[in-house]
């Protein structure tokens, strides 16, 4: 009896190979041949699942984005049944910084995808959608806190801050503990107090 192939699992295996190569060498160095070798499959197998490099990169970007979203959901769930708005936003943004082993492994590939999105419309569109959802969620949490502030601008400031801190931590310009302190400084300004502030 022929072995049943899990096509989604095979596509994710190829996506993991793309992300591994991107993290080590950048996306410009990623070719179908290299991805096939990294994934341990034939080049024909890669071409069977993806029509070309751009389609493969978009799938890999969505796969890594899904992993980041799962980590964020786990971090927020770990806060317990009634976390403060500040704690939720901090858990979410903290997972975007390369602090944990998983985040450090993913951040170089994410950064490579961000750079590629400047010239790749499909990647840029995916980033716009995800970014808008993220900013909208953060703005909603900011609106839940009493006080006069522009929630949309504050959310955009926080996400831009974390994007910049991620790059600076990756390139060694800023230590991880300083990045966390900078994030906390801005969260305190918006939400008041420290962890647990409502």
How many separate helices? 9
CATH class of the domain at 60-191 equals Mainly Alpha
Biggest sheet architecture: none
Shape: elongated
From the N-terminal CA to the C-terminal CA, the straight-line distance is: 60 Å
Unreliably modeled segments: none
Strand percentage: under 5%
The CATH architecture term of the domain at 60-191 is Orthogonal Bundle
Characterization of the model:
GO terms for molecular function: DNA-binding transcription factor activity; transcription cis-regulatory region binding. It holds the Pfam family TetR_N. The chain has a domain of 132 residues: Tetracycline Repressor, domain 2. It is elongated. 73% of the residues lie in helices and 0% in strands. The protein is an all-alpha fold. The chain has nine helices and no strands. It starts with 6 loop residues before the first helix and ends in a 7-residue tail after the last helix.
Topology:
Layout: H1 7-25, H2 32-39, H3 43-49, H4 53-77, H5 85-94, H6 101-117, H7 121-143, H8 151-170, H9 176-191
């Amino acid at each position: 009896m022929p072995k049943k192939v899990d096509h989604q699992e095979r596509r994710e295996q190829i996506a993991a190979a793309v992300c591994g190569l991107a993290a080590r060498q950048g996306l410009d160095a990623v070719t179908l041949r290299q991805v096939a070798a990294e994934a341990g499959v034939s080049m024909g197998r890669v071409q069977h699942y993806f029509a070309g490099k751009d389609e493969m990169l978009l799938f890999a970007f969505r796969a890594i984005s899904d992993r980041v979203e799962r980590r964020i959901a786990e971090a927020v769930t770990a806060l317990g049944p009634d976390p403060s708005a500040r704690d939720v936003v901090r858990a979410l943004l903290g997972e975007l910084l390369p602090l944990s082993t998983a985040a450090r492994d993913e951040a170089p590939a994410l950064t490579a995808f961000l750079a590629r999105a400047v010239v790749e419309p499909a990647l840029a569109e995916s980033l716009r959608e995800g970014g808008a959802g993220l900013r909208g969620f953060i703005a909603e949490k900011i609106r839940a806190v009493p006080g006069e502030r522009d929630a949309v601008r504050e959310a955009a400031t926080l996400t831009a801050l974390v994007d910049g801190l991620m790059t600076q931590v990756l390139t060694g310009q800023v230590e991880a503990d300083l990045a966390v302190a900078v994030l906390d400084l801005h969260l305190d300004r918006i939400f008041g107090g420290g962890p647990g502030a409502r």
